[in-house]
Amino acid sequence: MELDLRLEDVGRRYGLHGPWVLRHVTLRPAPGTLTRVAGANGTGKSTLLRLLARVDAPTEGRVTGRPRTAYVPERFPAALPFTAAGYLTHLGAVHGLSRPAAERAADHWLDRFGAAAHAGTPMNRLSKGTSQKVAVAQALLAEPDLLILDEAWTGLDADARAELERAVAERTAAGAAVVFVDHDPRRLADATDVVLTVRDGGLHARVDADARPDSAPTGPHTTVEVHGRAAALPLEALRLATSAEQTAGRRHRLTVPASHSDVLLRALLSADPPWHVVSVRQEESRP
């Protein structure tokens, strides 16, 4: 799957002279990956997701590429002039499905999330939980290449939360990229490839330590220090690293088994834009 979406040196602020929410953000979600966006309340997580979804336009920089994208916003507009099934069928047609295919997809996802009994209910009469099921279903019915979830699990019952986790796994297995925000740090921790933390208007990438609890190298290892123009380290580099941390600004320190050091350096130097290698240090076994 070719996923050509890219944020290039993007900044966003609200109002002509308002403070910058995000600044100098470069990001390119990779196919088949699951990315968590973390950060304190008000740091710009939802703003980043809205830029990825092209709901908002950047104040500076640019967003390129138009993959088939689906988005579950933090606040779903439930008071719409449709029934639940009618709304999903309409969205399916917007995504390019034929009407019969859109109707089948609507029925399928309402059934999967336990909301089939509400197919004919007007949207403005749905409970908050059922409305959230429709919000999630509309994002999944067209099999997007990029799925963006902003607190999508909030309001769902336990069965629907589990069903959404299964649906996320299906999308990444099919080669789609999934980017999500969730208040529960345990959400999909074992499946997350990269954590992007929004802090001080910038974007900082690290390996999800919770997903790799036994990653500390016990044999000879290599520590590489790099810096670059991009906010996020290349995904291939993060997958190779047994530890990765941001040390200052756009400077990072990565550790890999010594046998993987050449592959790591190649991933960093061949990235777009390439990373500058500050130092490479070989170390013996850790106790």
Structure description:
This is ABC-type multidrug transport system ATPase subunit. The chain is α/β, with parallel strands linked by helices and 287 residues long. The protein has a domain of 70 residues: 2-Layer Sandwich (Alpha-Beta Plaits), CATH 3.30.70. The chain has a six-stranded mixed beta sheet with strand order 5-6-7-3-8-9, sandwiched between helices. The radius of gyration is 21 Å and the shape is elongated.
Q: What are the low-pLDDT stretches, counting only 5+ consecutive residues below 50?
A: 208-217
Main sheet?
Answer: 6 strands, mixed
Number of helices: 7
Q: At the first level of CATH, what is the class of the domain at 214-283?
A: Alpha Beta
* Secondary structural class: alpha/beta
Strand order of the largest sheet: 5-6-7-3-8-9
What is the count of β-strands? Answer: 13
CATH architecture of the domain at 214-283: 2-Layer Sandwich
CATH topology of the domain at 214-283: Alpha-Beta Plaits
Keywords: ATP-binding, Nucleotide-binding, Transport
Protein name: ABC-type multidrug transport system ATPase subunit
InterPro entries: AAA+_ATPase (IPR003593), ABC_transporter-like_ATP-bd (IPR003439), ABC_Transporter_VariousFunc (IPR051782), P-loop_NTPase (IPR027417)
Domain ABC transporter: 5-225
What brief labels describe this structure?
single chain, 287 residues, alpha/beta, Alpha-Beta Plaits, 6-stranded mixed beta sheet, 4-stranded antiparallel beta sheet, 7 helices
